[in-house]
Task: inverse folding
């Protein structure tokens, strides 16, 4: 089977490409002309150039493909990013999966997010059946991912054999764009000044990638699968990262103070014509608990969750190897000296080594 992967230059998408290749499938990656290809080095795959919002380019890239995994998406907490997020996370799903329906693919997977469920201000464990409050939270990223799922459901009702996966907060090696794993980097660098208590589910990108492949090969069309991990309060995450990195944890701040600081940051940024470093949407999201159960994915897809410390160690070790984190503490120096683990499933090496992927001759 040849599979088109959108967002393959990203954190999750690149590991999905690796996991597909390790299962003996052919991979074609849809990449933009401006995309960094660091995450594709060493992978024996094709490349087709185009944007997920360009229906013609997507249709060309789908020629000869029996499957598609649509991982491309945009994350942001600044209201200035809202239009772009709704375009890519919402309309992009319509374009890519709509083209997949027209092309008659036999299987499709959409990468959504547990953000679609929303969250609560008190601890709870949600799953695929939990009613969503994402549209009521005033957080554009949550709303844009919800719009994407809704578009996928419409296409599923028209006959597209699509399964939806909802990863939680993804950690692990290979986050070249500093997306979700950048939280661990900031804590280890002591550049995370304060924190607001909430909670999230933390999963490993390699487990999530394998979950995508299993959803493609044996997921039920029209079904949703949560790909979660370890449900931790923010304070517990910070304690574990700080202990492993040998740094002091940042102090906790109360919700009113965090919200006031974000409002002030947005006001000052608007006066200076700059983007705020802290936003009210980020503060609202940080306050929520988004703990989840992956029981359905475990039962139907064989989804596995590796030990949390393994994910943390591999995340920090990768940032050290990339020169993004100086091993200034004894704990980080010990991590840097450890032998790196092999890639997921014994497949290709992690991002950062090898040769460039070969371009497609017939996208």
Result:
């Amino acid at each position: 089977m040849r599979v088109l992967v959108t967002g393959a230059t990203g954190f999750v998408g690149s590991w999905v490409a690796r996991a597909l290749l390790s299962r003996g499938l052919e991979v074609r990656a849809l990449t933009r002309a401006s995309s960094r290809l660091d995450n594709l080095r060493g992978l024996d795959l094709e490349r087709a150039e185009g944007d997920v919002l360009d229906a013609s380019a997507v249709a060309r890239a789908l020629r000869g493909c029996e499957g598609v995994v649509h991982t491309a998406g945009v994350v942001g907490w600044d209201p200035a990013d809202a239009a772009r997020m709704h375009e890519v996370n919402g309309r992009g799903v319509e374009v890519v999966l709509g083209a997949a329906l027209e092309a008659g693919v036999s299987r499709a997977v959409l990468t959504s997010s547990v953000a679609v469920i929303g969250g609560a201000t008190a601890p709870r464990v949600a799953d695929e059946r939990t009613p969503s409050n994402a549209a009521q939270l005033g957080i554009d990223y949550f709303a844009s991912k919800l719009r994407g799922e809704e578009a996928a459901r419409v296409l599923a009702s028209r006959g597209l054999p699509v399964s939806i996966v909802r990863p939680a907060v993804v950690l692990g090696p290979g986050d070249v764009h500093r997306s979700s794993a950048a939280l661990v980097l900031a804590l280890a660098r002591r550049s995370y000044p304060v924190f607001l208590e909430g909670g999230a589910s933390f999963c490993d990108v390699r487990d999530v990638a394998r979950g995508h492949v299993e959803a493609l090969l044996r997921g039920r069309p029209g079904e949703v699968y949560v790909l979660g991990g370890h449900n931790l309060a923010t304070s517990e995450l910070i304690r574990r990262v700080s202990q492993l990195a040998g740094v002091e944890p940042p102090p906790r701040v109360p919700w009113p103070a965090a919200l006031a600081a974000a409002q002030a940051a947005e006001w000052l940024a608007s006066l200076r014509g700059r983007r705020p470093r802290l936003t009210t949407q980020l503060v609202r999201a940080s306050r929520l608990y988004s703990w989840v159960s992956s029981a359905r994915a475990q039962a139907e897809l064989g989804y596995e969750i590796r030990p949390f410390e393994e994910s943390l160690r591999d995340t920090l070790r990768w940032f050290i190897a990339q020169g993004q984190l100086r091993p200034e503490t004894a704990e980080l120096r010990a991590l840097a000296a450890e032998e790196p683990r092999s890639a997921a499933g014994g497949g290709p090496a992690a991002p950062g080594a090898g040769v460039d992927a070969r371009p497609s001759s017939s996208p």
Remarks:
- The chain has twelve helices and twelve strands.
- Residues 342-348, 352-363 have pLDDT under 50 and may be disordered.
- The two ends are 15 Å apart (CA to CA).
- The domain at 2-251+278-342 is CATH 3.40.50.720 (Rossmann fold).
